[in-house]
Amino acid sequence: MTKFLKTLSGLLLVLVLFVFACQDKNKETIIKGKASLFVDESIFPIVEDQQAVFETEYDAKLKLITKSENEIINSLMNDTVKIAVLPRKLSNDELKAFVAKKINPKMTHFATDAVVFIRNKKSNDTLIALDDVINFMKGNSVNGIKGLVFDNPNSSSVRLISELSGIKVTPQKNIYSFNTNSEVIKYVAENDGMIGVVGVNWLTQPPLDMQNNVDAVTVLSVKDKNKQDYIYPSQDNLAQGKYPLARDLYIINCQGYSGLGMGFASFLGGERGQRIVLKSGLLPVRMPSRKIVIRK
């Protein structure tokens, strides 16, 4: 009986050690494991590019889930998501709510992009004034604008235009709302006179199945309120702070431990991640280094 108990105890010990070994093997670290990441739909292409390279370099798997800005913020506040990429910081009130729950979100700025206006290429007009957009939203007739098309009532693009105009964007006569940026681009590509409002990243890095639609639209130069010049959303103009609809991109990590949220944030802000941002047409936070080889 004693021998049996010793054997049983030995087997239990081996089983416990095996369980702990498996747990340690599957434990998430900054460069290993699995995690879900909520991404603002208007900036999905740049995050997808970063994910692809990150996963090839490390034993990590990031599941990207696209949502509108409001949906992501609500999920963060409800603790249903721990890592998110958004085109803005958390507000002071949002930060206070996290502090009250003894959570200290880490926010890493890794790029600057832009909300842009697009028009069907059948029109030769490549300019648009923000005042004209605001007047149209007030219900006034504006030459060259048959309608405004937004991606989602809860999107970051809608929030930005609402803040700049002082008018809450809601679907009404001649103001339309879809669900995604790709739907907006397709609609504008097929309908002359419509002005679409999208994230520029969908135009600089379109999926292959969207290329024909992207080729059929024009990105417009924008004149800010009380300004004279029309500014195109180029990297140079974003860097100089000239483009009026620029916005900073952040990865927000609420994991509270050294997990993939920390690792991916470091990657985005590092040399490799910043180089990916630069090639995407967006503005990196810091310019990647360049090696100059002098040959005789």
Automatic annotation (TrEMBL):
Residues 1-21 form the signal peptide. It comes from the Bacteria. Transmembrane segments: none annotated. SUPFAM superfamilies: Periplasmic binding protein-like II. PROSITE patterns: PROKAR_LIPOPROTEIN. Keywords: Signal. Pfam families: PBP_like_2 (PF12849). Gene3D superfamilies: Periplasmic binding protein-like II. InterPro entries: PBP_domain, Phosphate_ABC_transporter. Residues 40-268 form the PBP domain. This is Substrate-binding domain-containing protein. The lineage of its organism: Bacteria, Pseudomonadati, Bacteroidota, Flavobacteriia, Flavobacteriales.
